[in-house]
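Morning. Coffee machine broken again, so started the prediction first thing and wrote up yesterday's gels while waiting. Chain of 271 residues, entered below exactly as on the submission form.
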Amino acid sequence: MAEIIAIANQKGGVGKTTTAINLASALALLNQETLLIDVDPQGNATSGLGFDKKTFSPSVYNVIVELLPLEKTIKDTVIPALHVCGAGSELIGAEVELVPALARESRLKGAISAVKDKFKYVIIDCPPSLGLLTINALNSAHKVIIPIQGEYYAMEGLAHFLETVTHIKAAINPGLEIEGGVLTMFDSRMVLSNQVKQEVDKYFGSSLFKTVIPRNVRLAEAPGFGQCIFQYDPNSRGAEAYADFARELLSRRGSGEKSSAGQKPAAETKS
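Came back before lunch.
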């Protein structure tokens, strides 16, 4: 049965989609059958894995708004264990179309439940907002990972977002837990970045991931080529960091996945 993890932060530009793509890819390369669901209308997780978000059809829009079975939207990627349910521009209107819908907060949860036995992990890339799409994602999830940029406004809105998670847990998803925060786009040479790290560490405590994702040009370039970092530059600092991040996540799951956690993701892809 799949563990469902939402990658969410109401603040944009914090490396949320980069984290969703590369965490999902790293897990898949560690032999964990993984589904990445893109519920961000910008569709960057979709295009970042080589799909045309303008023509990805059927998409997550059809699942959430029209109740199309999720399995009919899933596409394979060049990484054998990684699969995608993509997003397109029509998802922009989903927030409005969902307002009068029955069970509007549970559309995605119901869809995932039908395929949960086919995957080890389901990673959901959320929009940088707290609308119905994000609520659908959080209602579906077992865990939330919060990417936090190592810059001045890192803590802005974080308390409000965590309060929203608490409300969703109390009202509709009692199983929802915060997995933790992960520092992204981090530059250890900057005094400010280290100050932010100290503040975030105080805020999250032991739930903050020890792995820090550095500011890395190769990570920024990879989506433009429709590739995860392990395809684009598997020897980069960014690839090493996301490999470590995936292994750290697996290590939190205990002895049952220690063998996978000890492996190094290799960019094995379909020919």
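Confidence is low (pLDDT under 50) at residues 255-262. Going to sketch it on the whiteboard this afternoon.
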